[in-house]
Design a protein that fits this description.
22 helices, single chain, mainly alpha, about 525 residues, globular, two-stranded antiparallel ribbon
Amino acid sequence: MNWLLAVPLMLPLLGAGAALALAKYRRIQGVISVSVLSIVLVVAVVLLVGVNSGPIVLNLGGWSAPVGIVLVADRLSALMLLVSVAVTLAVLVYSFAQNVADGDEAAPVSIYHPTYLVLSAGVSNAFLAGDLFNLYVGFEMLLVASFVLITLGGTRDRIRSGIVYVVVSLISSVIFLIGIALVYAAAGTVNMAQLAQRLPEIDPNVSLMLQAVLFVAFGIKAAVFPLSAWLPDSYPTAPAPVTAVFAGLLTKVGVYAIIRTEVTLFGDDRFSDILMWIAAATMLVGILGAVAQADLKRLLSFTLVSHIGYMLWGVATATTAGLSAAIFYVAHHITVQTSLFLVAGLVERRGGTTSLVKLGSLARLAPLLAVLYLVPALNLAGIPPFSGFLGKIGLMQAAASEGTWMAWMLIGAGLATSLLTLYAIVKAWNMAFWQEAPEELNGTSTPRTMTVSAGAVVALSLAMTVGAGPLVQYADTAARDLMLRTPYVAAVLPGGERGDGVSDEVAEEGERESENPTESPTDDPELVGIP
């Protein structure tokens, strides 16, 4: 099964080459793209099942870790891979009926499909990378592909926002590269499993500095406060499918990198207090920005920033319960945020604009569209019994179990953010769907393919609510493995015992929780609504 790890990387790249070679045959390009991502989706399902027996490792070129390049799939990366590929495939189908991929003059379809497949390969590479430099390569693949996608059409606004996006991303990449150099100088390796053993042995102040440098690099990519100012100006100008896949995936790759490095590499709570403040500020500043918006895409962009704070909250607790809730919330948010941006594209097509001041009467003109907006919007706000509510409850209980004043501060910030999110999305609902339009809308009919694709992502978010019990248990197990770190290290570096980098306290905690899984707060049936 190990060879399957190469499929999510190599197949999209091969598909991109084939699609570029067949640039004159648009339908064939579409068939290639859908076929490639469908195969990758099947592989992701197989990997998700396979990691239940332990992490899956592939040493590329026959060179074993830590010398060679290694791909690793554990429970966290397998879940992220599956959700990301499912969303990527749905957005691709959506784009067939959208101007960005239907061959008009504003969307050069000959480069859209190859670039989109490269983007998918970059996301997969980031999730499966077993060393920091390969993670950097994945980020650079994302940067190159996303710059092409965000500037499709070459309009002034898209070029301007694309330049801002690229400059910020390059700054992040430079900081990340500097961080890799510093890590290698301090520990003599960039392999994550080996770093998990060596970093705790170096000077604590040096380790903290390395942790801070990597967090800044990933924090820019994840759009955490105060490194998030670039996002609301960059995403709304792109075509709807591009914005949707950016919002759903690219920031989550940054969050994934934060989780992987904070837990697997450093595995301590020295950074927790700072993370708590950053999480609270990200939630509150982001949602206050959303409340002030009169454009649907910009409003959703600010909510995207805000809810990154919930994911940082789970990491900041430095507990298995908090990390489990963060993993659950990342998977939930990928589907919900993607569906909302896809629906925003439908709104723009039907109403001719995303300005809430100019919209109105959409509930009467397009009732199905109103439902497709309202369901993920309520999910985003954390209204029970949706998955957003379950994720937030898990985060709050994890914080409450800590009992510190900072933990209660986070709970207060989370509750305030949820209430303001509800206010923002209800305001958008009222202005776009319920109130009378100030003037006749000049939009066009919505192709069925776009509606079905957006509905599929909404259905996926609802499936997470229906299957919350197994998903929460999966997230619990993934969090325990991450906190313990032994399964990851042993799989990548076989034949070795638990290194000194895995502290006795963390190991004992993971072993106790593995023996008593029902003690995890997120397994409580009353919390997840499972009888």
